[in-house]
Amino acid sequence: MNSAREAAAAVVDPEIRVITIEDLGILRSVEVDPGTGRVVVTITPTYTGCPAMDVIRADIRRALAVAGHPDAEVRTVHSPAWSTDWITDAGRAKLASAGIAPPAPVRRDGVVPLTLAVRCPRCGSPDTEQLSRFGSTACKALWRCRACSEPFDHVKAL
Ligand SMILES: [Zn+2]
Q1: What's the CA angle centered on 92, arms 91 and 97, to 5 degrees?
Q2: Which of 2, 24, 31, 103 gives the lowest tally of CB atoms within 10 Å of its CB?
Q3: Boundaries of each PaaD zinc beta ribbon domain copy (predicted)?
């Protein structure tokens, strides 16, 4: 069981390859179905329509097969909905060290988070601007730092 959990937790996000699905907070549970004896991995999708989820499902099954569970099942739960607040501190640190600005915490009272909180992952300056709503993937936006002129990806808060 521990090997199954470790194998699933080590699967990396196909779009942001520096962080694992556990870092992202989308790995909900790894259990054995008492009826079938099969390992069941439960995940919650990130951004709606993110094509990466199909890749993640395939990668989880492949990782579990390598760990000795060739008949593992991957289930998807949509409630409660994933939010960028589920990204772990370790995940945020890995994003920052890869030059990707982590998402700001989202306020749950319906107030849109201040995009002013986006800081340059290279120099830390808050003097940044959004160049494009879509960066290298639909889940990221392209930003630029006015202080050091470097463009960077920002994982959108959700
Ligand atoms: Zn900068």
Answers
A1: 100
A2: 2
A3: 116-156
* pLDDT (0 to 100) of residue 132: 85
For residue 51, pLDDT beyond 80:
no
In angstroms, what is the span from residue 31 Cα to ligand 1's centroid? 44
Longest dimension (CA), the chain: 59
Q: How many angstroms separate the alpha carbon of residue 130 from the centre of ligand 1?
A: 13
Q: Does 9 have pLDDT greater than 90? A: yes
| 86, 28 contact by CB (below 8 A) | no
Q: Contact at 8 Å (CB) between 88 and 103?
A: no
- DSSP at 111: P
The CA 44 to ligand 1 mean position distance, Å, reads 33
Where is pLDDT greater, at 113 or 59? 59
69-117 confidence digits (pLDDT tens): 999 999 999 889 888 889 999 999 999 888 988 887 766 565 555 544 6
Report all structural domains of the chain as residue ranges with CATH numbers, in order of start: 2-76 (3.30.300.130), 100-155 (no CATH)
Residues 6+ apart with CB under 8 A from 79: none
Q: How far apart are CA 146 and CA 148, in angstroms?
A: 6
